[in-house]
Amino acid sequence: MQKITIAIDGYSSCGKSTLAKALAHKLHYDYIDTGAMYRAVTLYALQMDLMDEQGTIQLDNLINALPLIEVEFHINERTHHSDVFLNGENVEREIRTMRVSDLVSKVSAIKEVREKMVALQRKMGKRKGVVLDGRDIGTHVFPKAELKLFMIADPDVRAKRRQDEFSSKGQYFSLGEVEMSLLKRDMADISREESPLTQAEDAVVLDNSDLSKEEQLEFVLKLISDLQFVTREEQSH
Q1: What residues does each domain of the chain span?
Q2: CB of 70 closer than 8 Å to CB of 77
Q3: Which of 92, 109, 151, 213 could form a disulfide with 10 if both were Cys (CB 3.0 to 4.6 A apart)?
Q4: Residues 6+ apart with CB under 8 A from 119
């Protein structure tokens, strides 16, 4: 079976990473959580006092520090998923906090940051057989990906998912706090100047508000099967 590139875009807490991980596991593909890469840069900015808790960034200093920032993925032997490493340190837990969630959109809007991360993403995915999820994968990072998905979900469903995610990691926030955080993130993603969140024209929309994880996986695997059948048919003519 010919390997392809699968690009998954969409809003926060629409289940992009859950689906992407399931697809990568099922297909024996590599999984790249591009949003986690921007979270790692945000964490670095906070750790190095290049950004304060209100989101004010020392722009020139952060840009100058970019050559010092290395972001990698390594398989966690316990979970069998890819963890994010920042300059050799596992930061998977640190980058999933509300603190980073509230500030990452400001860092990801910086042109120089996006250029570096996109270059890394393209390098990681150039051999195909890869699933990437983020905000601009199908429109900017891999515009020629064989399969593009754009995931959406009801706002209330998204907020509850994110609240449950925080709770599972010992972080407790009211539903209202989570909803406000998601709304701010949506607005920042849609309105940013550099590679804003938009749906690619050839993307398949997947509304998973009422779909189980198994139903989502089955839906996308059918898309892939149909896609590869069409490709074989074209090659036979």
Answers
A1: 5-221
A2: no
A3: 151
A4: none
